[in-house]
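ARCHIVE CARD
CATEGORY: sequence design from structure
SOURCE FIELD: tokenized fold
FIELD CONTENT:
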């Protein structure tokens, strides 16, 4: 069986590393939701600028941010939460008030149930995909762009004797001479004192 995200061989539909990575993103959604508020209003040019072509005023809000702030985060997650609560015989979802509370409470519940979901929930892979999709939408809305650079495929040998083969990526802007390079698929870590060895392994892989 292959992990639905990294395609690494695993016993479940999603591997532990991809699942844990998704939960890390989920944990930060309430904070990201608050950060989105300042992105609602589109930036304007200088007052002296003239806008030609159309007499219509600019849109009062950024629609993609409005979508995320009005259910784009909570609704997909709460669909999974509702099913998980039913399977575990937990109390159903009750009224949660404003949208921020919905985001907070569904993220808190899913994070607290992360181990059970990973082990028992048949739709755990789709939940992880949903989390990753929301994360990408939020990052785009906030103006974040991935700076990751692919340096090769992970050469780590797995328990079954096969090479991991997942993309090995680093952020050159944050990588320091004392940092680590970690494969998000298998979790293998290449410490700074092993970089030279890693480089030789990757070079040989390309030959």
């Amino acid at each position: 069986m292959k992990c639905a995200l990294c395609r690494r061989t695993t016993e479940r539909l999603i591997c532990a590393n991809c699942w844990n990575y998704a939960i890390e993103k989920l944990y930060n959604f309430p904070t990201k939701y608050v950060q989105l508020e300042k992105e609602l209003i589109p930036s304007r040019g200088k007052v002296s600028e003239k806008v030609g072509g159309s007499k219509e005023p600019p849109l009062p809000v950024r629609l993609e941010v409005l979508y995320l702030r009005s259910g784009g985060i909570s609704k997909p997650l709460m669909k999974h939460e509702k099913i998980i609560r039913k399977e575990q015989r937990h109390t159903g979802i009750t009224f949660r008030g404003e949208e921020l509370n919905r985001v907070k409470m569904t993220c808190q519940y899913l994070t607290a149930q992360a181990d059970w979901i990973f082990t028992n929930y048949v739709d755990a892979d789709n939940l992880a995909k949903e989390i990753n999709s929301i994360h990408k939408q939020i990052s785009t809305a906030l103006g974040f762009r991935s700076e990751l650079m692919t340096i090769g495929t992970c050469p780590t040998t797995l328990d079954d004797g096969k090479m991991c083969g997942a993309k090995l990526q680093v952020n050159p802007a944050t990588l320091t001479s004392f940092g680590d390079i970690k494969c998000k698929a298998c979790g293998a870590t290449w410490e700074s004192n092993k970089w030279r060895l890693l480089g030789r392994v990757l070079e040989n892989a390309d030959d």
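CARD ANNOTATION: DSSP finds eight helices and four strands in the chain. Residues 1 and 11 are 6 Å apart (CA to CA).
SHELF: design records, drawer C
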